[in-house]
């Protein structure tokens, strides 16, 4: 890439609307030799590039100001692909700092932190996948997400080794998508990637940017989408990265009441600056365009929306209207979603937003933020709280099962059982369950089977399919030897079957976000710890009934309301022997009788297994 910054580039960058700014800023190897460098540092006294080719000598390769844009650019004739480099920025405060390139496409492996000149030569093979994605509506398609931390799924793997191992594993499990915890360059592994130093570079610990492209391409080849965790809310204070980049608070706010995050010890982007918004907006597009990501999960949205997030009185500055809403962040998130959905149709933009902010996943044209989906933290909290109680006490907490359906249509929800729920003393999902070992496993199987039938899309963190006893740690691999135990292998088999049945049954995903796709059959059986509901396809021609008994008592002859007559068969039973259950159920199916019940025209007696979920579908004969 030989082109420097033209007038249009400078104009768009100044307005914060240069959607391909990463093609102009950063380091770009020239066809005839040398490397063009460009960086935004408006308050710098001077900028030069130091690196392997010039003995890291400040001033050897100076950059020149590009008009009055605040951008410095120039060509280092002796620089080449593979060379390490930094920017020697003489700041407004008189101090020269060696900075990593904010737009670097590649970086040294931590703890080293220099940028690396890189030019992609990857040839993609996923044209058909991308064409199908662009024509699809993610709201009306199956979405079952396997959340992965690349460094600890199986320790020691490169991007290419992960492609070889993770691809077939997820394909066998049947998840539609993998969601990767932040893959952007970060210096501190225990941050899990949420303290990003290089927003345009995949983590070099696992290989080159083209190695990461290979991973995405391989997952697409296997029919698996890729969602990337993205962190626009904050960045770390490392002096060699974005912090006080040109000797001033450039990317962050000067005032600590707006520019410092009290929980994480990080800095907050100054979204009032066009150039900072452009840095993030172009970055989101970069991961979708250059790395073929099928979606972004936007981290910590609540911390962006509220000026008083985790702050006491006097520790925050009200907005111009005197309120607590961060109007600049609201405007940025709306612009982000408008641009992403317009330029890259079919992608999913998912908000991790933990408050009751209205319209997170509603169109910006109606006042919403424009996200495709929002994590349903309320459902997660309530269902895990309910299941944490001994069955004998669950009758007093039945509303925790039913209340999420009161607001189920307020947003386009993803049901998340994420990494956040299995760390920091919260225990693993299995360890949260009460009872003896058999009951704990049965509770977990019932949770998964109910969740996969519940309105909304699904997300499960890696290790959940193994029914791990221990909490997750980024410092060790998943507990793979558990699969030698039939009880744990049974949970993985259940999830594989759940995904296969889910993907094949439109009633479970065509109408996730409108009430006509759902009907309560039994919502008030608190004394029996039973719930049952029906799901319907868009045309109404397909129906699936989910009934769950969260009690260890077998309920024989239990009468279940049904929306249709005829014969019904068990499509799934989480108590099946194939999942290491006790194999209680309705193997011969059930026959609906013209006995109205709970507003339904039919009902049928059936057996509800202990601590188990059954799915019933009309028997086509």
UniProtKB/TrEMBL annotation:
One GO cellular-component annotation of the UniProt record comes to:
cytosol
Q: Which reaction does it catalyse?
A: Transfers a segment of a (1->4)-alpha-D-glucan chain to a primary hydroxy group in a similar glucan chain
Tell me the active site: 299 (nucleophile), 352 (proton donor)
Q: What EC number(s) would the UniProt record show?
A: 2.4.1.18
What are the residue boundaries of the Glycosyl hydrolase family 13 catalytic domain, all occurrences included?
147-476
Q: Which GO terms describe its molecular function?
A: 1,4-alpha-glucan branching enzyme activity; cation binding; hydrolase activity, hydrolyzing O-glycosyl compounds
Q: In which pathway does it act?
A: Glycan biosynthesis; glycogen biosynthesis
**Biological processes, Gene Ontology terms:** glycogen biosynthetic process
* Gene3D superfamilies to which the protein is assigned, alphabetical: Glycosidases, Golgi alpha-mannosidase II, Immunoglobulins
In which family does this protein belong, per the annotation? Belongs to the glycosyl hydrolase 13 family. GlgB subfamily.
This protein's assembly is summarised as: Monomer.
Q: What does this protein do?
A: Catalyzes the formation of the alpha-1,6-glucosidic linkages in glycogen by scission of a 1,4-alpha-linked oligosaccharide from growing alpha-1,4-glucan chains and the subsequent attachment of the oligosaccharide to the alpha-1,6 position.
Name of the protein described by the UniProt record? 1,4-alpha-glucan branching enzyme GlgB
Q: Say which species the protein is native to.
A: Gaiella occulta
* Phylogenetic lineage: Bacteria, Bacillati, Actinomycetota, Thermoleophilia, Gaiellales
Q: Which gene encodes it?
A: glgB
């Amino acid at each position: 890439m030989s082109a420097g910054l033209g007038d249009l580039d400078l104009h768009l960058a100044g307005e914060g609307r240069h959607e391909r700014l990463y093609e102009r800023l950063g380091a770009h190897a020239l066809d005839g030799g040398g490397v063009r460098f460009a960086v935004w540092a408006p308050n710098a006294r001077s900028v030069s590039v130091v690196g392997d080719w010039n003995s890291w000598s400040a001033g050897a390769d100076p950059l020149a100001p590009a008009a009055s844009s605040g951008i410095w650019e120039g060509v280092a004739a002796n620089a080449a692909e593979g060379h390490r480099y930094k920017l020697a920025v003489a700041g407004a405060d008189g101090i020269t700092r060696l900075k990593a390139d904010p737009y670097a496409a590649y970086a040294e492996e931590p703890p080293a932190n220099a940028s690396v000149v890189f030019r992609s030569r990857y040839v993609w093979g996923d044209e058909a996948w991308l064409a199908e994605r662009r024509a699809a509506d993610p709201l009306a398609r199956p979405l079952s997400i396997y959340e992965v931390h690349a460094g600890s799924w199986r320790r020691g793997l490169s991007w290419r080794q992960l492609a070889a191992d993770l691809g077939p594993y997820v394909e066998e499990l049947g998840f539609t998508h993998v969601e990767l915890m932040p893959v952007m360059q970060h210096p501190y592994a225990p941050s899990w990637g949420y303290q990003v130093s290089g927003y345009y570079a995949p983590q070099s610990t696992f290989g080159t940017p083209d190695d990461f492209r290979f991973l995405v391409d391989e997952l697409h080849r296997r029919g698996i989408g890729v969602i990337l965790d993205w962190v626009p809310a904050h960045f770390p204070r490392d002096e060699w990265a974005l912090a006080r980049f040109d000797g001033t608070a450039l990317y962050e706010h000067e005032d600590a009441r707006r520019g410092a995050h009290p929980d994480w010890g990080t800095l907050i982007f100054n979204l009032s600056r066009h150039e900072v918004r452009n840095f993030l907006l172009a970055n989101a597009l970069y991961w979708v365009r250059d790395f073929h990501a099928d979606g972004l999960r936007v981290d910590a949205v609540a911390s962006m929306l509220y000026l008083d997030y985790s702050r006491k009185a006097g520790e925050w500055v009200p907005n111009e209207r005197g309120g607590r809403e961060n109007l600049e962040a609201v405007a940025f998130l709306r612009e982000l979603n408008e641009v992403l959905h317009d330029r890259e149709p079919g992608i999913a933009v998912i908000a991790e937003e933990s408050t009751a902010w209205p319209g997170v996943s509603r169109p910006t044209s109606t006042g919403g933020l424009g996200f495709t989906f929002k994590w349903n933290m309320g459902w997660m909290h309530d269902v895990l709280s309910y299941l944490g109680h001994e069955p004998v006490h669950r009758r007093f907490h039945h509303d925790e099962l039913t209340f999420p359906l009161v607001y189920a249509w307020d947003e386009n929800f993803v049901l998340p059982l994420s990494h956040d729920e299995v760390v920091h003393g919260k225990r693993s999902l299995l360890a949260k369950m009460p009872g003896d070992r058999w009951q704990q496993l049965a509770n977990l199987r019932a949770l998964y089977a109910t969740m996969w039938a519940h309105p909304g899309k699904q997300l499960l963190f890696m290790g959940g399919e193994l029914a791990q006893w221990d909490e997750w740690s980024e410092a060790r691999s998943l507990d793979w030897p558990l699969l030698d135990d039939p009880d744990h292998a049974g949970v993985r088999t259940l999830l594989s079957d759940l995904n296969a049945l889910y993907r094949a049954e439109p009633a479970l995903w065509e109408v996730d976000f409108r009430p006509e796709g759902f009907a309560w059959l039994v919502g008030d059986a608190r004394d029996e710890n039973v719930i049952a509901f029906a799901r319907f396809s868009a045309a109404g021609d397909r129906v699936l009934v989910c009934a769950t008994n969260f009690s260890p008592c077998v309920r024989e002859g239990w009468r279940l309301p049904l929306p249709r007559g005829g014969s019904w068969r068990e499509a799934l039973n989480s108590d099946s022997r194939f999942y290491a259950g006790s194999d209680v159920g309705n193997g011969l199916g059930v026959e609906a009788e013209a006995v109205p019940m709970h507003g339904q025209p039919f009902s049928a007696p059936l057996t509800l297994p202990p601590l188990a979920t059954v799915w019933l579908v009309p028997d086509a004969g």
